[in-house]
Each structure stands twice: as C-alpha cells, then as structure tokens.
Amino acid sequence: QERPEAELEKLEVLGRGNGGTVYKVQHKRTSNIYALKVIHGVGDQSIYKQFLRERDILRKTDSPYIVRCFETYEKPSGEVALLLEYMDGGTLDTFLRNHGWFSEPEVSHITRQVLEGLVYLHSNKIMHRDIKPSNLLVMNKNMEVKIADFGVSKVTTLPLDPRNSYVGTCAYMSPERFDPDSNGGNYDGFLGDIWSLGVTVMELYMGHFPLLPPDQNPSWVTLMCAICFGDPPTLPPGASDEFQHFLDCCLQKEPSKRWSASQLLGHSFLLKYQGIHIR
Ligand code: ADP
Ligand code: MG
Fold first, then answer.
1. Contact 36/83 with Cβ under 8 angstroms?
2. Secondary structure letter of residue 233 according to DSSP
C-alpha cells in the first residue's frame, strides 16, 4: 500500500539533527502515525551520500530491534525523506533528561535489545558507527528499544571539523577512531560499535556522560584525552560485579580485546535480569 508524501500531514517536530528534521506525521486516509525524516542540503554530495546509505540500510534491514522504514521519497526539487515507524517514547537521551537515570534491571533490559539489534546488523555486515542515547528510540508499551539513525559517514575520518557539533558526535567514539593510522588496515569498525555501546550503557545507569565528571562542557581535546588516555571507567558502588564485568568487556581500549555483540548477548549481566518485568 502506497503512502504518497502528499497524503501526509505534519503534526509536530520530533527532533532535529545534523541530518535533517524529523516530523511526526499522520497519513490522512488511514490516520496512521509515522515519523518523517526530511533531509536537507542534499545538494551537498556528502549529505546525499549519507541519505543513500541510510536508505539502503533501512531497506534491507528487517528486525524488531531496528527502526522500520516504510517508504522513501526523492523529489525532483531535491528534497529527500524517509517514512519511519513512529516511536512514541522518544529517545533514550530525552528519557535520561526527564528521568535522570535507569536502574540496573532497566539498563540490562535496554542493553539486551540494543545488542539484539547489533548482532543483527553485524551479522549482515553493517556497522552503525553512531550508537548513543539520542539514536536509540523507545516504544512506550513494554519499553521496547530500537536502533535508529544510519546516516553516519560524517565522522569516520580525520581531520575533524570543529565547526559542527563535533564534541557531541565524538563522545561515543572508540579510541582507535581517533587514530588516523588505524583507519585503513586492521581497524574493525564492528568493535567500535561495542565501545559506543559500553559508553551508552554506562551513561544510562549514571545519568551523565561517564568518561568525564558531570556538568563539564569539554573541548574535544579534553574529550579525546579522556577517551584515549583515561583510566578504564568504573561504576559507582552499588552496581553489581556482572554489570562492571560487562562494561569491562565493551570498554577495552584495544579493540581486539572487546567481546563481539553475540558474545555479549550471552553475558551474565543480561541473563541475570532476563524475565524480570520492567515498568
Ligand atoms: P540525525 O541524523 O539528524 O541525528 P536521527 O535519525 O537521529 O537524525 O533523528 C533526529 C531525532 O529525531 C532523534 O534524535 C529523535 O529525537 C527524533 N526521531 C528520529 N526518528 C524517530 C522516530 N522514528 N520516531 C520518533 N522520533 C524520531
Ligand atoms: Mg541522530
């Protein structure tokens, strides 16, 4: 069943990012609600390439842990858009800002779903490259979590452009991604996603970016030093040993020492809370 763009009514703005603007829209005939991600500036080759990358990935993914795309639009005027499944709970980032932090069982429940998504992606040879709370979407019933935003190609290589919201973008990047020499050779981008997952999961529990003291507004040099040269982060007292061990498996500086997504899915931190009802 087709959903021509003309039949969509824009209701509100759900989010804005580097890539474009995401609207909550209603399909007039069926009254169904969707999210419409409109990408601006596709005259710029690199932005257009990001759009194509995201479109191609969303077309071939089919998993309950990856946000679904129903339609893509490419108008002669140059505007391009993706019609996505609407996630009514917003992002984990807004969730954190409104609720502060998540309990350990909640973090475990969220982490399991993100890992299911990563196992799916990695087994299909897709790297996400931008795992962070604002790219993880929530469906309120059952606290379902899905991976979104496959538009990244913007931050994969040096030199860095300090003009854009660079600090926010590289906060979740693994140490090897700051190293220009590791870009070609044996750099395994899949394990970069695992690092980003570790930082994200820790942030969900602590309520702030875990590699720096709270309420800092770091320059990217500070941030890079914390990521590349800082001590491995530890959880505050009260967290379980399984949780700390899980993070240790994600936050190894040396990528080859990190566990893969499918190994992590069997970790005791996830098994321990399996079946526990959340909310
Ligand atoms: P960008 O590349 O601009 O970061 P995203 O795909 O991450 O693009 O979307 C930007 C924001 O729009 C998200 O952080 C989120 O707040 C909102 N958003 C995106 N997709 C959806 C969706 N399917 N349902 C609800 N909100 C969404
Ligand atoms: Mg995003």
1. yes
2. P
Positive or negative: CA dihedral 144, 278, 135, 175: negative
pLDDT value of residue 279: 57
**Atom 2, ligand 1: which residue's CA is nearest?**
19
Which residues on neighbouring strands pair with residue 24, listed in sequence order? 12, 35
Q: Which atom of ligand 1 is nearest to the CA of 50?
A: 2
ipTM above 0.95, yes or no: yes
In this structure, which long-range contacts are made by residues 216-223, counting pairs with CB atoms below 8 Å and at least 24 apart in sequence?
218/167, 219/167, 220/160, 220/162, 220/166, 220/167, 220/170, 223/167, 223/170, 223/171
Instruction: Report pTM.
Output: 0.92
pLDDT one-digit tens code per residue, 10-47: 999 999 876 689 999 999 999 999 999 999 877 778 88
Give the whole-angstrom CA distance, residue 39 versus residue 85: 17
Q: Give the pair of three-digit tokens for residue 206.
A: 């602590």
- Between vectors from CA 249 to CA 212 and to CA 104, what angle results, nearest 5°? 70
Asked about 181 being catalytic, the answer comes back as no
CA-closest candidate to residue 205, choices 117, 119, 273: 273
Overall size of the chain counted in residues: 279
Catalytically annotated residue among 56, 62, 130, 193: 130
